[in-house]
UniProtKB/TrEMBL annotation:
It comes from the Bacteria. Residues 11-121 form the AB hydrolase-1 domain. InterPro entries: AB_hydrolase_1, AB_hydrolase_fold. The keyword Hydrolase applies. Keywords: Hydrolase. Pfam families: Abhydrolase_1. GO terms for molecular function: hydrolase activity. It comes from Flavobacterium glycines. This is Alpha/beta hydrolase.
Amino acid sequence: MLYSKIEGEGKPFLIIHGFLGMSDNWKTLGQQFAGEGFQVHMLDMRNHGRSFQSEEFSYELMVQDLFDYCQAHSLESINILGHSMGGKIAMLFATRYPEMVEKLIVADIGPKYYAPHHQTILAGLNAVNFSVKPSRADVEATLSQYITDFGTRQFLLKNLYWKEPGQLAFRFNLDVFNKKIEEIGVPLPSELVFEKPTLFIRGGNSNYILDADVENIAVHFPLMKLETIPNSGHWLHAENPVLFYQMVVAFL
């Protein structure tokens, strides 16, 4: 069963993190959404965070994990928000189980195919040698040789934990990601449609959702609405959490 953090009472609202992320990335926003009268479920997907690790990794499997989670928690009607990889999961879940989803929110990802583009990040992560028992500062120093953006490094470093005294490790399953990285960019199957209110939020400085993509998005999500957060990149919810929060709450 997927690990989750649950905040508040009310209408179930599921939040799904992006690739290499975890539920903890959404802690502050999750608590704020809970204050609006939602029961917020912040999930760790398979091979991420504190959830189980598996050699199998695909969107279809993660949607099944999500369905099993809803069944176990008796969640029959939900709102769902997903960022990046989490947005792909949320889109596929909503089109597979439309009777369970009231409203869908997708943060900075579209249903199209995305070519592999995490090579530099994976190279940095693979360069970390945990056998020499590095400190957190040592791990950051290694990552900084590959990843120049401070925010991205801090995002990745949140995955560090003490596996045992003196021994750090990453929570995510790096071995499987190395083998299955193609799965992250897989498109939503062309025939799938979700005919309920859907909000797409993109970062003004991000190239994940282009103006040219809107027509294809509307084919899958005819009741879609697109909002843009100016001066924000792919981590739009972290770069401008106030505006992101306002957009989500207004839509819900």
